[in-house]
Structures are given as C-alpha cells and as structure tokens.
Amino acid sequence: MLRSRVFATAAVAAAAAGLAVAPTPAGAATGSVHLYEIYYNSPGSDTGSTASLNAEWVKITNSTSKAVTLTGWTLTDASRHVYTFPTASLAAGRTVAVHTGKGANTTVNRYQGRAAYVWNNDKDTATLRKSNGATVDTCSYNTTRFAYRWC
Known about the structure:
Elements: H1 2-16, E1 33-39, H2 50-54, E2 57-62, E3 68-69, E4 74-76, E5 82-84, E6 89-90, E7 95-99, E8 109-111, E9 123-129, E10 135-142, E11 148-150
C-alpha cells in the first residue's frame, strides 16, 4: 500500500510540474521481492524453546512474475544479527517465512538456527539485501501494542 501511495504521489507531483509519466505497458513484469510481515513477539512467555523461537519470524514475498534466486541474500535486524540465505529460490507469487529457531528448511519455511531471540519486542528494523549488498527493502516497528508488523 505504501509503495502505491509513493508512486501515486510522485505521479501527481510530476503531472503538476508538467512532466509526462509513462504508463506501465500491459503485460509488463510488475511487483517486487519485499518484506511482507514481521512477527516479532512470539505468543506466551519467552521461554527460549524451539517452538517459541520459531514463532518469531519474518515473511518475504515475491510479487513478480518470475522466480528470484535468494542465494547469498541477507536478512538483518538493527543489532546486526544476520541470516544469509543458502542456495535458495523464491517462486513467483510465493512467500517464505524466516524463523529465528531451528528446523528443516523448505521452500516456504527457512530457519536461522539460533538459540536466542532476534527481533526486539518493542522496536527493530528488518533489512533485506541482495548478495551484492544492495538494499531491497526495510521494515521498522516501534510499539509493544502489537506482536506483528505488516510491511
């Protein structure tokens, strides 16, 4: 939603300045790979159990029309805990959840293999970067009112 508002605002500003804004051609590839949701405060007490650690996760969505190779991409929090994707691909239109704890990696669930929580319960920032270090997306939260943040 925010991306749409930013584009709409830019289009209105360009039109007001007398600049032409090219429409997106029909059938053109649209979308992005982006942070979708952060569940930063797992339910119940923070016991440090595998179940509790795995209830803390970040979802990444590929809204493009093609698979994207995530090999070497990183997911980082503000304290610089880094998860690096091993050999991985995210199919078009699919979402993958990156859990904090341990488990068997699948196409829809990845595991950092940590024994301690990553995402702060009050505020933090998730950053997704390509293997070359280029920032793809960021998502921040600053509240204890909720346990999750839609990005």
